[in-house]
Write a structure and sequence with these properties.
- It is built from 10 helices and 2 strands.
- 73% of the residues lie in helices and 3% in strands.
- The longest helix has 42 residues.
- Strand 1 and strand 2 form a beta hairpin.
- It has a single domain, classed as ABC transporter involved in vitamin B12 uptake, BtuC, CATH 1.10.3470.
């Protein structure tokens, strides 16, 4: 009987790890190929949630689930074309300042347009209720969230590992000079990477909105934890980020059960321990920016 509450806490940790992972993978991809640390990534997460709230009134939750990430991806393409692209070859500090300012502008814009108060967003009727398996009880919606996150990560893995687009992106991360010597421009691939990355962040926003509510500062709140996952896993490593999210999930879930006050801080302690022995993270690789 004691194992059931522990398992429930681990599932809750996995749930947190799932949306950390959706955001962290995008952060890692953008940095790996473009050398840009995107501090505005949380803003795209928040935009996905806000778009979902407004779209759900007209096309339902399922429609918002599909359309909101697409709209955010289009917005990401515009931001990449007119802002990010100017900073790939510049001092990384300039990219940090740009994306930090962009994040602040996005948060204040959301506050002006939608107000500072949180917006409610209900769980769809089809996913309300509990899943019962003997003495085990868990939210049906939370299980659906886990399933959607796993499907999104699997789709990204297939795109990067089994398609021509993914082969060029991986080659660009490992050796951009070789890719350039072959006459392949990485600029359009970078646009695709940004679009996919911000769409994943928006998807996380849509999934999490019914649980946490929707408010202007939600992007800043999620970004720090997502960076922790990236740092633990190692920049440039797809599976490193995935494994880091799983490890953070389990550690957080077990800490929440045995010592609840330290549940949030456990991931930061884990990051400190990893960096002491592996400064590049668990699977970190050397990153070379493309020119």
């Amino acid at each position: 009987m004691m194992l059931i509450p522990i398992f429930e806490q681990i599932l809750n940790g996995l749930l947190a790890g799932a949306y950390y992972l959706l955001i962290a993978l995008g952060l890692s991809l953008i940095f790996s190929l473009g050398g840009l640390v995107n501090l505005a990534h949380g803003a795209f997460y928040a935009l996905g949630a806000y778009f979902a709230v407004k779209l759900a009134d007209h096309i339902g939750f399922a429609g918002a689930f599909l359309v909101s990430p697409v709209l955010v991806a289009v917005l990401g393409l515009l931001v990449e074309r007119f802002l990010f692209r100017r900073f790939y070859r510049e001092d990384p500090a300039l990219g940090l300042l740009l994306t930090f300012g962009l994040a602040m502008v996005a948060e204040q814009t959301l506050r002006l347009v939608f107000g500072a108060a949180p917006l409610p967003f209900s769980i769809p009727d089809a996913l309300k209720g509990q899943v019962l398996a003997g003495d085990f009880i868990y939210s049906r919606y939370r299980l659906a969230m886990l399933g959607a996150a796993v499907a999104a990560v699997a789709a990204l893995w297939y795109l990067l590992q089994r398609t021509p687009f993914g082969r060029v992106v991986r080659a660009g991360v490992q050796n951009p000079d070789m890719v350039a010597a072959l006459g392949i421009s990485l600029a359009p691939y970078m646009s695709g990477v940004v679009a996919i990355s911000v769409a994943l962040a928006a998807l996380a926003g849509v999934l999490l909105a019914p649980i946490t509510g929707v408010h202007p500062a939600m992007g800043a709140e999620i970004l720090t934890a997502s960076f922790v996952v990236v740092v633990i896993g190692g920049l440039g490593s797809f599976w490193g980020v995935v494994y880091a999210a799983l490890i953070v999930s389990v550690v957080r879930g077990l800490t929440a059960y045995f010592f609840p006050p330290a549940a949030e801080s456990s991931m930061y302690l884990l990051m400190l321990l990893v960096l002491l022995f592996r400064p590049r993270g668990l699977f970190g690789e050397r990153i070379v920016r493309f020119e």
